[in-house]
Amino acid sequence: MLMGMGPYLMGCIRDGLLWPKRSEALKVLVRNVPPDPDESVSEHIEHFYCVNHPDHYLTHQIVYNANNLAKLVAKKKSLKNWLIYYQNKYERKPSKKTTMKTGFWGLWGTTVDAIDYYTAEIGKLSAEETEEKERVLSDPKAVVPAAFVSFKTRWGAAVCAQTQQSSNPTIWLTEWAPEPRDVYWDNLAIPYVELTVRRLLMAVVFFFLTFFFMIPIAFVQTLANIEAIERVLPFLKPLIDMNVVTSFIQGFLPGIVLKIFLILLPTILMTMSKIEGYTSLSSLERISAGKYHLFLLVNVFLGNIITGAALEQLHTFLYQSAAEIPKTIGVSIPMKATFFITYIMIDGWAGIAVEILRLVPLVMFHLKNTFLVKTEEDREQAMDPGSLCFATYEPRVQLYFLLGLVYSTVTPILLPFIVVFFAFAYLVFRHQIINVYDQKYESGANFWPDVHRRIIIGLIISQLLLIGLLSTKEAAQSTPFLIALPVLTIWFHRFCKGRFESAFVIFPLQDAMVKDTLERVTEPNLNLKAYLQDAYIHPVFRGGEFERPLAIDEEENSPLVSTKRNSRRESNGGSETGN
């Protein structure tokens, strides 16, 4: 079923159901614009596209480094919220003066009138905000070497987004613009070279995070070993010998401890992805999901199998040849079935139950409503259901899918637990997505290639582990014939990648031309310039006035476009020097 979704999704994209709507389909994000000594960033972008895309370039929206301004706006919003709270409090009891302390959290400091204090603070912040906004709009250093470039047709946008713009492949980098809700504005101001350094550092950090997490994994495995606990803590022997305690330690305690260790991991991985500098929320979640999947694969799955085998057969594991490692792992796989059954019940079944009950959001809402909610706006924010966290749920589902593939032939008793999990997960998440969660953005099915690749990885791992297991049995002589399974799976992945992946990352020029033709017929009077000029404004500028680059009107377009050299010649009074 999962494999068959590739052609279906591709058909949806071709039909325009998943491909970005009009504003995104006509917008291209241009990054790493090279500096020019004679022109501003905006003028340089306009010249470049007037020369290289004269028939399709419409306008562009430059990007400002407004991170400091955004902090001021957020702080002012918080102060306004407090002001509304104290005004409402005063209106309910006019005879009682509203006072507060100016220290940390109002615990200490000078006692002042709350309404007067917040009114004065908002006035100061408004002046700072106006000054910072003027600085951002007038300071050339506040302009980021990036822009959202608009085109008159999808065909022109597709040509720009999917081709190399310069002989130097490190400048004028183009990609499809994410939809306006999907833009992560904080990372647009990061220079290209800094992005490379950040991603290298985060790759090193992720490696060490994954490697050193083997230590708590080994600790979790020792919890299931009653003999090891009795040797380390002999005074607990009378308690451990009780049947109830022994069942709990061997059954549920390892899964509970492992779940506790993994609670903060998605937040850490998302922070790392933000440091890496990705420019859209969808890409942040997609990259975080990839890290989380690799982490679960290495530590939760392979880590529990290999660490368990190493702890139980440490001497043999260290001194055996590399060819014997698959056999050792093959032997340890059935031994870990009990652990994974309890892990599925604790993390999977209990997780689905918690998801449908939403106990954590319910408790958090009542805590916020009791201690933090001051106005109706606060209450609306506290009641916000959020959106489905793809970066957390998708890798977990992939892990259970992998466990089902591996243990379907090794220990089939685990399959009912997997089937129950997927049945409940389908019902619960279908309900949550339709009736509970809000959709933050539309990514155009960009997640599916990663999902498909992880399914293939799960298939290959299950086949290799099956080969390792059978090599320990009497069927060892037939195992070489099973090598055809991973080979055929890899071939199938390459076929799907070549046949379907382009539909998720490339907009065919033929389809772009068809959509442009249909749009000209159905909406001949559409003013694209007015429609697109405010599509990608930084949230702190919405509702305000700021300078926009002028669009190129179709009536004013001329076959002869002034180049940068001509403009410089005209600026020098028309003088021309010979060679």
TrEMBL record:
The segment(s) forming the CSC1/OSCA1-like 7TM region domain are: 198-470
Q: List the residue ranges of the region (Disordered).
A: 553-579
Q: Does the keyword Cytoplasm apply?
A: no
Tell whether Cell membrane is among the UniProt keywords.
no
GO MF annotation list? calcium-activated cation channel activity
Span of domain CSC1/OSCA1-like cytosolic: 28-187
GO CC terms of this entry: plasma membrane
Query: Pfam families, per this entry?
Result: PHM7_cyt (PF14703), RSN1_7TM (PF02714)
TM ranges: 200-224, 244-271, 292-311, 400-429
Q: Which UniProt keywords apply?
A: Calcium, Ion channel, Ion transport, Membrane, Transmembrane, Transmembrane helix, Transport
- The protein's name is CSC1/OSCA1-like 7TM region domain-containing protein
The organism named in the record is Nyssa sinensis
